[in-house]
Design a protein that fits this description.
The complex is a heterodimer of chains A (108) and B (111).
Chain A lengths: L2 E3 L3 E5 L4 E8 L5 E7 L6 E6 L3 E5 L2 E6 L4 E6 L8 E9 L2 E4 L3 E6 L1
Parallel strand pairs in A: 2-11
Antiparallel strand pairs in A: 1-3, 3-8, 4-5, 4-9, 6-7, 7-8, 9-10, 9-11
Chain B lengths: L4 E3 L2 E4 L5 E6 L6 E7 L6 E7 L2 E5 L6 E5 L5 E5 L8 E8 L6 E2 L3 E5 L1
Parallel strand pairs in B: 2-11
Antiparallel strand pairs in B: 1-3, 3-8, 4-5, 4-9, 5-6, 7-8, 9-10, 9-11
Classes of the chains: A mainly beta (108), B mainly beta (111).
Chain lengths: 108, 111
């Protein structure tokens, strides 16, 4: 079977750092994506990990451990506009499987 | 560079009807994927088209079908609509890299 698990909801304070975890069990693996989705809008690309390690992109970083089936998205210097759902997705042979998403609320 | 567009934005149908949703891929992209997203859930992969051929399919029944045209635009057809088909339908295009760019989606309501 294929399983991608993320926490349902998280809350953090403006200016803080938050880590959103994703664990996966899939029949194959070509890469892992993180997307941001604001309510009522389409997902937008944040990051893509193929190899183990940390990928940094401004305030956002994503980490991958293929042996552990684990990834996290790190958001620094949180802003109110970062309130959104964050989707973890595993790509395998033209098939993209998404987790249910983590709804992040940033409070002042 | 034009992004991914979808039409219509919203649609209301009744059970048993058929629906066609349309997607224009981003310029330079030859691959289109379709997803169904229920409220509060992540997108569920329906299928992918690459150069006019179906290139992968998720766990959806045959009444979900699609087409890709020579200009790489695409259609999603759903026959015999059921209440559970009510969802946001997302189209995403990509080139040879895996990164997918999503359109704004079509909100389908089945009554």
């Amino acid at each position: 079977g294929q399983n991608i698990d993320q926490p349902t909801e998280m809350t953090a304070t403006e200016g803080a750092i938050v880590q959103i975890n994703c664990t996966y069990q899939t029949s194959g693996f070509n890469g892992l994506f993180w997307y941001q989705q604001h309510a009522g809008e389409a997902p937008t690309f944040l990051s893509y990990n193929v190899l183990d390690g940390l990928e940094e992109k401004g305030r956002f970083s994503s980490f991958l451990s293929r042996s552990k089936g684990y990834s996290y998205l790190l958001l620094k210097e949180l802003q109110m506009k970062d309130s959104a759902s964050y989707l973890c997705a595993v790509y395998n042979n033209n098939d993209m499987r998404f987790g249910a998403g983590t709804r992040l609320t940033v409070k002042p | 560079e034009t992004g991914v567009t979808q039409s219509p934005t919203h649609l209301i149908k009744t059970r048993g009807q058929q629906v066609t949703l349309r997607c224009s891929s981003q310029s330079g992209h030859n691959t289109v994927s379709w997803y169904q997203q229920a409220l509060g859930q992540g997108p569920q992969f329906i299928f992918q088209y690459y150069r006019e051929e179906e290139n992968g399919r998720g766990n959806f029944p045959p009444r979900f079908s699609g087409l890709q045209f020579p200009n790489y635009s695409s259609e999603l057809n759903v026959n015999a609509l059921e209440l559970d088909d009510s969802a946001l339908y997302l189209c995403a295009s990509s080139s040879d890299r895996a990164e997918q760019f999503f359109g704004p989606g079509t909100r389908l309501t089945v009554l």
